[in-house]
Recover the amino acids of this structure.
């Protein structure tokens, strides 16, 4: 499966990068994308399966709507209302949402250390 994930900014990207395999390209809109940025995204992503993961605020919802028009077949991943954006979402919740989207094979699970060792 050839995939790409779109997020709003570089902090969101770096947060996701902590739990995703390096082979998964993560693209940023850097805020509300204009026509030039949208065309650049479309060219960079090509025919990959697209996953959109934006914040659960008014700006994120607006960006998600714009991207939905550009990538109508995209899967949408959501962070929980109350988390201040993707960049501040706990890693375990990010992993849970990526699993729900069927991306288990791309997740880099953190190493759990046993107590007392």
């Amino acid at each position: 499966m050839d995939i790409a994930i779109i997020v709003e900014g570089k902090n969101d990207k770096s947060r996701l990068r902590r739990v995703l395999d390096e082979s998964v390209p993560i693209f940023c809109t850097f805020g509300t994308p204009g026509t030039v940025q949208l065309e650049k995204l479309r060219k960079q992503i090509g025919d990959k399966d697209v996953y959109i993961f934006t914040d659960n605020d008014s700006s994120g919802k607006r960006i998600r709507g714009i991207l939905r028009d550009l990538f109508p077949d995209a899967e949408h991943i959501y962070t929980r209302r109350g988390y201040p954006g993707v960049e501040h979402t706990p890693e375990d919740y990010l992993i849970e949402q990526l699993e729900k989207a069927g991306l288990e094979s791309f997740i880099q699970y953190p190493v759990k250390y046993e107590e007392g060792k």
Summary: Residues 2 and 48 are 5 Å apart (CA to CA). The chain has a mean pLDDT of 92. The radius of gyration is 14 Å. The longest helix spans residues 58-70.
